[in-house]
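Troubleshooting: if your tokenizer reports a length mismatch, compare your output against this known-good record of 316 residues.
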Amino acid sequence: MIHSRARCAAVLIVVLSALLLGACGGSSGGDDDDFPKVITLGAGEFFPSITNQALGVGDNRVGFGLMDRDDQRVLDASVHVRFFELNGDKPRFLSEADARFIPVELSYVDEQSRGEKTVTGSDGYYVVHANFDMPGDWGAKIIVTRDGRTAKPLTFRFNVLDDTPEPGPGDAAPPSRQVTLAVANSIEDIDTSFPPRPEMHRLTVAEALASGRPAVIAFATPAFCESRTCAPVMDTVMDPLYAKYHDRAAFIHIEPYELPQLRQANQREPVPAMREWRLQSEPWVFVVDRTGRIAAKFQGVMAADEVEAALAAALD
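Known-good structure output:
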């Protein structure tokens, strides 16, 4: 077993947030123009951390975790988010929405225990959609209500890119030719699931794109996922959708890292498909339409109905 998997998901979220936001800030201030550039931990009742690899112009599924001042995850709050563009002299209001809370039972496949599923706790993330209309500095004002009491709003600043590194809606899906059962020595060489999912390792991405059917593509490593959210995504999203739609769409699972190096030397060497899709984390799920273009993308924790809605639209 690779012990680095035992890291707390909350730590991963903070790291991802730091990579994305750089010198962005959090504050307990309530003014719409109060978007500090210096982060102040513990200044307010809650601290948000964005989980997205990057945010770009266009529609974004913004995910974030919430911590309280005791560094404990907040899993039972109602959250409202307002977004502001900050490139001009004054903040420009863009949109607002209630965030959806998506719970998750953290788990991983323990290969040293004959593939036994190990549950490590409960977590959850808040998700809200925003359609950013320009790159640059943006701010979010988050209003948290918990136990019937609304805390003082907190604000923070983040960056929006022209384009995200990974492909987004409307982009052509990279025609990856990942290793499948046709050439692998065994299913264990390309899948850390237990039991394995051979039905999701029969087609390359290139073959799925050529078929003219929609595709659902998951980059996930159930045994070695540091956030321990890969196994839940496969169990609660990919499996039920495959059972319902496998005769109408292609379902593909790609292990993000070269498994021999990972198992033997704890080295996370990305497989070629990870580089082609320009992914820096896991899990990811992409829905591809009949024309081979990305219809939707989901990073981290996700709900089956979110992905199903995107797939249903791609099937129409």
